[in-house]
Amino acid sequence: MSHRADVNGLQLFYRDSGSGNPLLLLHGFTGCGDDWQHVFAQPIEGYRVITPDLRGHGRSTNPGGTFTFKEVARDIFALLDAIGVDRVKAIGVSAGANTLLHMATQQPSRIEAMVHVSGTPRFPEQARAIMKTMTEKTRSPAEWAEMRGRHHLGDDQIRALWRHAREFADDRDDMNFTADTLAITARTLIVHGDRDPLYPVALAVELYRSIPNAALWVVPNGGHGPLFGEQAAPFVSMATAFLAK
User: Fold this and answer.
1) Which one of 30, 96, 122, 213 is at 20 to 30 Å from 59 when CA atoms are compared?
2) Cβ atoms 117, 97 nearer than 8 A
3) What is the share, in percent, of the chain residues with pLDDT greater than 90?
């Protein structure tokens, strides 16, 4: 079922389905919660699945016009508080994975286990170069159409998302994790494509070495977010097995 929650001065849209242990699914940047339907084609048995649209994405508002992963982590904790969920297992891809790093360091006891897909401790130069190109002037009609299919609050919402992406290019604070600051107690599976154009696989290895109780799965010939299309079935098998341990 779909719902809306008023948290931190914005309205978060989320879906809440199934029953069992709470499982939080966090989508990637410029994506939306419904993207997970392309990964989990069937209901995830044994879980209450909570799937929000991050601030400014999909059907969620962002009246303040800011976007940092620290803020998004606080948004998601406020949502969990609002629906009476204390502790979760979680899967996050890209922006969702970056958010999980903040969640697992802000309130470690609330994340029991997590699958961190295509995230990063910091933005490398190759990612910053790509981020700087994300303007509405460089987007094709097909890209506009795809974005309008995901984001339902008008073209200004879409322009704001691309503006945030350009702002990431100059970020040296929000995503700036080191081995000393990754004091994460959650069991963690790091999933990363060895052909990721944004974040080289060396950063995934760095996370693996820095996070206690971490496991690493490098997906051969995997790009950014290796969990869609033909890669969905092996991802679902690996991720659900890891979370069930």
Assistant:
1) 122
2) yes
3) 96
